[in-house]
Structure to design on (962 residues):
């Protein structure tokens, strides 16, 4: 574009894409007006400019069914997130040409962990519906789609954050770890929010990937196996076609809706499962954001739920971040998983001044505590208290040690007595 | 105790005339009821653990196989049974329970979602019975038609078989006849050839004699011309007046050169002139008139050249003024000739001119006709040739016919040859834009309705149905290619119907077509279905 193509003093090339922004804006505003100002629109655009994030989603345009194009979808969306356009994705499977089965499966796996997730292709390509590649591949694709849908509450709350603060939903590692120079050149791995690290497999025939887990003081839990890994390391992960390396940061709480449904609308009243990943200091925090999912009432009438979840001192508490909001949900908490936990003796749910015991299971090998059906409403104030045995640590002790301990208890008594006796 | 209760309930219910609903946890089919006994702890059906019975359908997934939550959506892999009284019972994935969508016609999958579902089982049952009845009717009639088709096919098969055998007999006879005629032909052609050669030889001799005569006359003429002083002698000086006779092409005819031409003599008379004549006759230009010798050389040669002596007509660039890139050297030499030709004659000759060397430009005489004997031999040979060719043609036709029938017999027309009747038929379907034409065992094509050429959507490949019945699908392949895509192909799906007709055509994938085709040939033997509306309750 010539520098002498001018509009007044503005070079055309600086404002060329404003047209795209206006088109998306007009479409979105038209849709809002059509609903009487009530319903949120969804408008997808290929041309955008600074500020387009206010009007809808964008995608990376006509790519091709090639491994390089799969790889590059990550840095493309990371860059866009940094300039405010978070709702970004690429055509899953590639627009032009026909993907191999492996490429299609890997693209579904990568795309499910990117903000805008859509499969799309040129009219003249061969059919590539996900059920056309045999039962194994159908199962792989189904599995990753289920993973995404389970994470929708997390995605949704991150978009609420982006809406309020502009923080990118899908972000490069250095945004959260700016002092860790090892993160500066990474573009095959990214963070979703601060708490989920994703390193999808984007190499054909890959047998393993090396993921960088940032943060010298962090721990990262594999979300599929709950295996704990220390931060600030390059972790080699052997992979198969079903592997999608995803890690949850120790110190975070991510709400998921694990029930399988056909659409997100069907999920509206489903219960949550809280995944509490403990930091090395046995601490974790997260949020829960719920609104009706389609209207502007969250904005005009404060109809939403925004809660802060904190795990500290062996207790998980849900507190209200918006006391003057009013929104009711029938969603409840059906399960709490605490990763990196110790086994409690008892778990109590404290709500409305009452205490009820909660059944639990403890997996010793992975240090995972599962609280079975605490049952509280997702919008309520509650605390789940894990009672640990106050006494000695469970070290097998011999008689001499016990005697020594017992005698130690008597020393102060002895001293007082001796003093009294003026000895 | 429970047994007594159950019995009482049964008796009560039966006396009231209501359908009996056996108590069982929501979503559990009758066949599995025995695993869900209320009074005992429940063991997951995969044996993985045992839980108190109150944890069945308590909206929390305890079993890996989902068997403790058939009636809720808590487990990802559970299975919910809806009774659907009035229609057909069904299993749906438990994940569809209370999701706001009415999946079971008896509404039992949405008991706590606020969704308003209506019980449509009776209606669905009625509709399905109707459809089944219709299908049964069609199957019955179709099957009868199929029997007829099989009968006809059998007959047709036998006819064709015998026809082929007959034809092969005939073919053998024809073969022999052809061989016999071939011998006759060759026998006749031999004397014909000899007679013709004789005739030709005679004619050649005659021509030579005539030529000689002409030459002699010319020679005499030339002598008279050269003899300027008419003294009966041609002298050296008289010869010198014709500079064109210069042997070394230096422009002048010297005395010595002239003498050389005359064989050293000072002068020659008519008889000695005979030895001079051959040396000068080529270059000699007559004083009388400048003959357009060139043109006569370019005139078309006499038409009646014997057929086996046709010279290859050189098609020169007659229509182009100056041949530019001619390959043969011959033509380059003749360039000037051509130029003269065109200067003198504007008319562009359409006929290919025959470039023959100058020797024929003098003889414009035609070969005399054959004498009677030769002609008779020629006629006889020609007749033999005609007979032979006729017989050969008949043989070829017979061969073709046999091949066609054998090809027809080679097709797989089904286990009872029930598809035979489709063989030479074509069936058309007109849509809004195209006319699709299916000619079974042959090809499928598509033609635009409002003019345009036909596109080949595939030629007969094979039966391609599933293993248990391959005669449900036909595959036609290698049709016209698509731009950057596959060659067009069509799959034809056959279903039972009373009529033989194409019911639809679609393109589910780019350049891969699907046709739906009904024919009685795929109707199965109707089973004895009792369309009873009531579910039999097992006790």
């Amino acid at each position: 574009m010539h520098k002498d193509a001018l509009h007044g003093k503005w070079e055309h090339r600086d404002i060329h894409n404003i047209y795209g922004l206006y088109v998306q804006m007009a479409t979105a505003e038209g849709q809002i007006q059509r609903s009487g100002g009530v319903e949120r629109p969804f408008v997808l655009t290929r041309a955008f400019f600074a500020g387009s994030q206010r009007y809808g989603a964008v995608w990376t345009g006509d790519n091709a069914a090639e491994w390089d194009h799969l790889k590059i979808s990550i840095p493309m969306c990371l860059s866009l997130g940094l300039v405010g356009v978070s709702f970004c994705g690429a055509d899953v499977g590639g627009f032009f040409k026909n993907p191999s089965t492996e490429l299609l499966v890997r693209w579904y796996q990568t795309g499910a962990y990117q903000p805008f997730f859509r499969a799309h292709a040129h009219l003249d390509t061969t059919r590539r519906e996900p059920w056309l590649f045999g039962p194994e591949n159908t199962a792989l694709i189904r599995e990753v789609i289920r993973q995404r849908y389970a994470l929708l509450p997390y995605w949704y709350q991150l978009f609420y954050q982006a809406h309020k603060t502009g923080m990118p939903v899908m972000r490069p590692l250095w945004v959260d770890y700016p002092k860790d120079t090892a993160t500066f050149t990474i573009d095959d791995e990214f963070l979703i929010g601060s708490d989920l690290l994703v390193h999808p497999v984007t190499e054909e025939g890959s047998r393993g990937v090396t993921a960088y887990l940032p943060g010298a003081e962090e721990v990262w839990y594999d979300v599929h196996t709950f295996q704990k890994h220390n931060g600030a390391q390059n972790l080699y992960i052997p992979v198969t076609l079903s592997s999608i390396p995803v890690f949850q940061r120790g110190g975070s709480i991510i709400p998921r809706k694990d029930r399988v449904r056909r659409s997100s609308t069907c999920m509206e009243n489903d219960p949550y499962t809280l995944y509490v990943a403990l930091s090395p200091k046995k601490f974790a925090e997260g949020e829960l954001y719920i609104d009706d999912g389609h209207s502007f009432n969250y904005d005009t009438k404060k109809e939403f739920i925004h809660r802060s979840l904190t795990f500290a001192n062996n207790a998980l508490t849900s507190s209200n971040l918006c006391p003057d909001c009013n929104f009711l949900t029938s969603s409840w908490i059906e399960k709490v998983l605490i990763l990196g936990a110790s086994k409690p003796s008892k778990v109590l749910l404290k709500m409305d001044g009452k205490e009820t015991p909660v059944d639990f299971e403890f997996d010793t090998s992975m240090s995972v505590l599962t609280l079975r059906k605490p049952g509280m409403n997702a919008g309520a104030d509650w605390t789940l208290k894990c009672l640990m045995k106050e006494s000695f640590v469970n070290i097998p002790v011999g008689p001499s040690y016990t005697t020594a301990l017992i005698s130690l208890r008597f020393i102060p008594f002895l001293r007082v007595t001796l003093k009294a006796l003026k000895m | 105790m429970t047994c007594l209760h159950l019995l009482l309930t049964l008796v009560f219910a039966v006396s009231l005339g209501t359908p009996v609903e056996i108590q069982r946890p929501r979503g559990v089919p009758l066949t599995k009821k025995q695993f869900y006994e209320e009074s005992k702890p429940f063991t997951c059906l995969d044996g993985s653990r045992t839980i108190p019975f109150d944890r069945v359908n308590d909206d929390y997934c305890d079993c890996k196989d989902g068997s403790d939550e058939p009636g809720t959506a808590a487990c990802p892999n559970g299975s919910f049974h809806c009774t659907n009284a009035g229609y057909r019972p069904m299993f749906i994935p438990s994940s569809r329970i209370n999701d706001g969508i009415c999946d079971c016609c008896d509404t039992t999958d949405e008991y706590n979602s606020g969704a308003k579902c209506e019980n449509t089982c009776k209606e669905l049952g009625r509709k399905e019975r109707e459809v089944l009845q219709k299908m049964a009717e069609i199957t019955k009639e179709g099957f009868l038609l199929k029997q007829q088709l099989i009968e006809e096919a059998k007959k047709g098969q036998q006819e064709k078989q015998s026809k082929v055998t007959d034809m092969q007999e005939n073919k053998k006879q024809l073969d022999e006849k052809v061989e016999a005629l071939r011998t006759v032909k060759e026998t006749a052609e031999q004397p014909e050839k000899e007679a013709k050669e004789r005739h030709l030889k005679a004619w050649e001799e005659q021509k030579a004699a005539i030529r000689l005569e002409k030459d002699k006359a010319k020679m005499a003429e030339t002598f008279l011309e050269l003899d300027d002083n008419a003294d009966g002698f041609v002298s050296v000086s008289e010869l010198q007046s014709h500079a064109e006779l210069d042997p070394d092409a230096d422009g002048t005819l010297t005395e010595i050169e002239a003498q050389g031409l005359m064989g050293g003599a000072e002068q020659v008379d008519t008889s000695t002139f005979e030895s001079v004549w051959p040396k000068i006759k080529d270059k000699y230009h007559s004083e009388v008139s400048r003959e357009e010798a060139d043109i006569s050389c370019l005139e078309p040669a006499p038409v009646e050249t014997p057929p086996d002596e046709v010279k290859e007509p050189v098609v020169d660039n007659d229509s182009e003024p100056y041949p530019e890139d001619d390959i043969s050297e011959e033509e380059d030499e003749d360039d000037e000739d051509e130029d003269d030709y065109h200067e003198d004659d504007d008319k562009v000759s359409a006929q290919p001119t025959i470039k023959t060397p100058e020797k024929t430009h003098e003889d414009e005489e035609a070969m005399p006709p054959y004498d009677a004997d030769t002609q008779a031999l020629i006629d006889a040979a020609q007749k033999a040739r005609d007979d032979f060719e006729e017989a050969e043609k008949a043989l070829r036709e017979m061969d073709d016919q046999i091949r066609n029938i054998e090809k027809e017999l080679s097709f797989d027309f089904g286990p009872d040859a029930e598809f035979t009747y489709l063989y030479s038929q074509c069936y058309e379907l007109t849509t809004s834009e195209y006319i699709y034409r299916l000619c079974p065992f042959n090809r499928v094509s598509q033609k635009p309705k409002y003019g345009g050429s036909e596109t080949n959507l595939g030629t007969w490949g094979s039966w391609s149905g599933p293993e248990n019945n391959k005669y449900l699908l036909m595959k036609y392949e290698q049709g016209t290619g698509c731009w950057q895509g596959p060659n067009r192909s069509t799959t034809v799906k056959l279903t039972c119907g009373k009529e033989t007709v194409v019911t639809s055509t679609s393109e589910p994938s780019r350049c891969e077509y699907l046709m739906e085709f009904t024919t009685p040939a795929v109707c199965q033997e109707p089973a004895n279905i009792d369309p009873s509306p009531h579910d039999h309750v097992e006790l």
Observations:
- Chain A has a mean pLDDT of 93.
- Chain A touches chain B at residues 123-127, 146, 258-262, 265-266, 268-271, 334-335, 372-373 (CB under 8 Å).
- The first helix of chain A runs from residue 12 to 15.
